[in-house]
Amino acid sequence: MTTPSDPAADAASLPRDRVSLANCTANCLEAIRVRKPFVLAITNTVAQHFTANGLLAIGATPCMARNPDEIEAFVEGADAVLLNLGTMIPAEFELMRLAAATCNRTGKPFVLDPVFAERSPKRLALARELLAARPAIAKFNAGEAAAMQGDVVPGTAALVTGARDRLAHDGQRAILANGHPLLGEITATGCLLGAILAACLAVEREAFVAGIAGVSILNIAAEIAAAGARGPGSFAVELIDALAALDRTTIEQRFKLEDHEFHAPC
User: Fold this and answer.
1) Confidence of residue 247 (pLDDT cuts 50, 70, 90)
2) Where do the structural domains in the chain lie, given as residue ranges?
3) 3 state DSSP class of 13
4) CA 140 centroid distance within chain
């Protein structure tokens, strides 16, 4: 992922559509900070601590509950949910199904992150089941996207992350270009992105807009964090600080959109 060479100059030359989407992103972040949405992140054990701190940094209220006996109550009380398949044990296959079904029953938006689905037939089968439950956003890397091509149902926004992040939703599309290579040098940044996407869905139910906002919030913060980091370890700390300090002006200056086709965004 690339860092803008001159954010102020880039902002001055943004076409109207890019200005509009940058404004949507800033609106999402400000709404999260005002409303402090309760985000249930059923995520992998490696990512829990970093994900919780990242959610707190943007102003959300994280919950990492994963007990099957109480998960329905936590979904019912959540504003949005993340289902991340990173570190699965046998009981969690049913946990994920129960959480998705409860999201459907209660109308709670959820993000699906089918981590390593392409490497395990059983996990791939579960990921396809969860996709059929219609997550608002499904987040893939290139390998996961290749394995699940054609499985995304209408109504779900599909995000494929990489050097350029590609988002598609019901005839709309965007290619986003913020970010930094250090995001790939520490664990759990992708998992954190899933949680930030859920936080955005809690305040913006249009999945296309929430997807653009979540990706841009993390990636712009990563650019800022990288500038003050000495390496991967300090980058992780700087990233949490950058998320906490991120503001509308910075988003508007740094927001990078390479290609798009969308309806009125917000």
Assistant:
1) very high
2) 7-261
3) coil
4) 10
